[in-house]
Design goal:
single chain, alpha/beta, seven-stranded mixed beta sheet, 19 strands, binds 3-hydroxybutanoyl-coenzyme A
Amino acid sequence: MSAMRFSESVTGTILDGVLVVTIDNPPVNAISAHVRQGLVEALDHAAALGMVVGVVITGAGRTFVGGADIKEFGKPPVEPTLPEVIERIESYGKPVVAAANGAALGGGSEIALACHGRVASDKGNFGMPEVKLGIVPGAGGTQRLPRLIGIAAAIDLIGSGRTVKATEAIALGLVDSVESDHLDAALSLVHDLAGEPLRRTGMLEVPVSEPADVDAASKKVLSRARGQTAPAEAVRLVKAAAHVELKQGLADERATFVRLRDSVESAALRHVFFAERLAGKVEKLDNVTPRKIEIVGIVGTGLMGAGIAVAALTSGHRVIGVEQTAEAAKKGRERIAGILDKSVQAGRLAATVRDECLARLAVTADAGELAAADLVIEAVFDDLPVKTELFQRLDGIVRSDAILATNTSYLNPDDIAAATAHPERVVGLHFFSPANIMRLVEVVACKVTAPDVLASVLAFAKKLGKLPVVCGVTEGFIGNRIFSAYRREAEFMVEDGAAPHEIDAALEAYGFPMGIFAVYDMAGLEIAWARRKRQAATRDPKARYVEIADRLCETGRFGRKSGRGWYDYSSGERAADPEVTALIEAVRAAKNIEPRSFTPEEIVERLLKAMADEGAALLAEGIAARSSDIDLVMINGYGFPAHKGGPMFVAETQKDAKP
Ligand code: 3HC
């Protein structure tokens, strides 16, 4: 029978007496208005056809349904709403079975939950990632999921937003079966269910959960919420499912969904979602073919190099690590193996995958081995003569089509490129430490970097599972330049009367995992001190300069590892230190500064403004392509709370809010 079209994105075919409805709304089959309309049309059609015994709903392509259409949020609602479609499915007179060919996320899972049976392919997976967008499920997820899998498991899934693979979904009771021919299995299930009383999820009793399990699941979710509203609301709604009528639970859920959807927190997280998908897209590279990168050379296998090696290995690359001596090469290999072992112990990596990674790893003192590499990343000491000498040496070793990347944090990659015979193949890849964990990579386009070199490292970074953000050459790139401006402003406030711990408390209350002075102490103060000393001769003598950090270093206070920095760590805890207070007071007195007090609001406002102003300068200079890239750098590299959207988002929304 030929396919029937119910809307621009929903078609149907009758197979074996069952209407198979396919949602085809690329790229992820989001539930746009025409999908909802098409589903209702299809259900109406199947209800009217006596020869049709039931309905199977499936998705075209790799995804079942990627959730509500996030691009419709904030626009006037279009009927039918998703809860209406879902109610129609659940109360339908004939069996409806979901055949999950791929990801069933958010509203996609909610459609599946309302069906009378669920079959998944082995690629099927389920999740309700709404909390990651600052919302709760809005089409019955918080009420139907606990009826299938219990309160504690539903709190875990909805509160964390994590996705479960088909095998876990079956263990949880979320799907009925996982089949390689999921469509065929779904058709059989419809026939099995036909004529029987239908199992309507919303009518099921919520299984009794152990209170201790519910408590533990809730605590876990709330402890990770870091000031966000949605996870706590999700927990509340799921718990309510145990004791309120379905209708009441659904009404509460919908009202909460609408309230959160219209919140700044959700707007911020949606901004981050779209910013991540935009990052790394460079218009002029649209038609450029990236080079193949399979073998990665890494010069320097210290903390940073080893982290990069692990990221490359776990994403399937061969890695050649290079050190200066055989002894250092042995240590480098041990360091890399140690990180892989830790990942196995933490349950993040299967032992078999670790073994495969180690089989693809060679660490050697013979730089000549880099002749096989498609890409060489240097992660050696951040010193210009060291790096230029290394790049010149690499010129003579690597293939003519190999790419050379520097992982410098502060040096000028243009200077490094200029020292080589082929500067067009040089690029910056600024990883963040630990490089196997941190997602952010600043991809630094040098003045003459060839387009296909840039395209290749962007593709490589994505293959590593990283979030690449392209930036131009400037001291400290996007992140460290903003961080410097932010730190400068924080130090101005300390000099003017705020205590470091007051500034940190204000930042932590805003949502940063750690205040700036605590971060400073954790990273160590001596590298920045050395840089300030180098820059002293060229510093504008008229510019305001705060000497407190220099004074701290002069007294041997280098941060956590020396037990003392902006704080005292001798008790094992971070504690404000009267010695530091006295030192700050002495600096203020020497400059005749009368200290004044700062409210937490003023502290945060000034720091956000310093970040946004520096971000605006980076945009004006063409260093960053878009303000959303700057937000991603600050969120993924510097602990800026994602649910606030980033400093540029905050500045832009405040500007829009002003009359
Ligand atoms: N709505 C609108 N657009 C979406 C979308 C959605 N739910 N999900 C993804 N897209 C868009 C992306 O913006 C991107 O667009 P672009 O090509 O213009 O940049 C495109 O689809 C492809 O997305 P990805 O690059 O993320 O594709 P992947 O293949 O890597 O991943 C995915 C696919 C796993 C489905 C991933 O896109 C994803 O996680 N999407 C979001 C899922 C989600 O949060 N769903 C819940 C929505 S809220 C909801 O359902 C509320 C309900 O309870 C009422």
